[in-house]
Design brief:
2 copies of one chain form a homodimer. The first copy, chain A, is α+β, with helices and mostly antiparallel strands. In chain A, a hairpin with an 8-residue loop joins strand 2 and strand 3. In chain A, strands 1, 2, 3, 4, 5, 6, 7, 8, 9 and 10 form a 10-stranded mixed β-sheet that branches. Chain A contains 5 helices and 10 strands, in the order E-H-E-E-H-E-E-E-H-E-E-E-H-H-E. Chain A has 2 domains: 95 residues, Pseudouridine synthase I, catalytic domain, N-terminal subdomain (Alpha-Beta Plaits), CATH 3.30.70; 137 residues, Pseudouridine synthase I, catalytic domain, C-terminal subdomain (Alpha-Beta Plaits, 2-Layer Sandwich). At the A-B interface, helix 2 and strand 4 of A face helix 2 and strand 4 of B. Chains A, B: Pfam families: PseudoU_synth_1 (PF01416). Chains A, B: Homodimer. Chains A, B: Belongs to the tRNA pseudouridine synthase TruA family.
Chain lengths: 245, 245
Amino acid sequence: MTRFALTVEYDGRPFMGWQRQKHGPSVQAALEEAVFAVTGERTVVHAAGRTDAGVHGLGMRAHVDIGKDIAPFRLMEALNARVRPAPVAVLDCVVVADDWHARFSCLGRGYEYRIVNRRAPLTWEAGLAWQVPQLLDAAAMAEAAAVLVGRHDFTTFRSAHCQADSPVRTLDVLSVARDGERIAVRAAARSFLHHQVRSMVGCLALVGMRRWSVDDVRVALEARDRARLGLNAPPDGLFFVSAVY
Amino acid sequence: MTRFALTVEYDGRPFMGWQRQKHGPSVQAALEEAVFAVTGERTVVHAAGRTDAGVHGLGMRAHVDIGKDIAPFRLMEALNARVRPAPVAVLDCVVVADDWHARFSCLGRGYEYRIVNRRAPLTWEAGLAWQVPQLLDAAAMAEAAAVLVGRHDFTTFRSAHCQADSPVRTLDVLSVARDGERIAVRAAARSFLHHQVRSMVGCLALVGMRRWSVDDVRVALEARDRARLGLNAPPDGLFFVSAVY
């Protein structure tokens, strides 16, 4: 049995999320079917993060155990051939130690959230960004983002379905950068709560629209109350960018 | 009658190109139908460039004459509402003089060609870039690009269906920039021949793959012979970026 670590890119639009579901396509099932087509083995592909429906992956990390004797490069090529037409691609494949775990060994996760700030609807980016028609003040959003950085109880920014034991997380990075009509919010932490990035981006957008002040974000955070969340951003603009080990 | 200048973005994937066709969808027809839905007027929407099937627009310029009394902002909003679900968006709309012509008044056109240089297939970018599996030497491509800049007879880089009177064009910019696995080729000229950008990019890619030398590009250019073209790049990666007036 050899453990392979995969770097995976995917377009989240057609999927119900990373995790295998009974009633619809998932990235995990697409990869597990590809592994079966290549090796004849029924296996589980474990990921660093289980992204929601409509969320994309640029550099998701995953691992899979395979009995068949196959070189990493050949496995990568074969998976890419067999996973089609699902919009999933294995960008890298290496052999790792048997105790390396894509989820439990992960020391840091990075997300990017893409906003297109304009009145006109999206064309080729539909489903790949959040179109916000109201003019957003990116400087105010950056100021509000700084309030959230650090170790906090993020109950306000956590889905009711979140299964984590503790709502406390340490947010290492939350940056806001505007380039023309595009705004990128980047977030990094050891781990995130369910919906945390989308919830934080939603509140930053309210600040950008001047419907919330920077202090409203602080009050919402300190309230530790999901009912105080201003807005949950849609999945469209969210990309899992990288995992650190 | 008022003449409006439009800035238009579109996803070229579902279209047979800019120009109205009898047997399939076009960007022009989508816009003309939207104008009809808004104004009840059957009009022609003229563009700065008639892009091919599968080619995209980021900042295409166009004009249309409308009899109905309507403010530019309202026209833009109404067109965006009516053009759906076609992936076309009007980003800007202004009133221009009656003799302003999107095509004939245009003094410069800018294109960008996007290459993703990796073995893995594309996911969310499928149809939005050219995936080239062989490692490309971007520095060699930039050197070859410099051979093409300037005033030349571009017969080698011109489609057999090109209707221009002269094959002579002055290429002002042809740059190659790599950012990780992404390579962007930018081209600017007063005007281009049919398939010129894709033909130039195809030959630059051959140089990047080391199948052609920089001198092979010079020889192909000087041959003024379409049969000497090495490779025509696919439409997927081509974006009409901007027009200058």
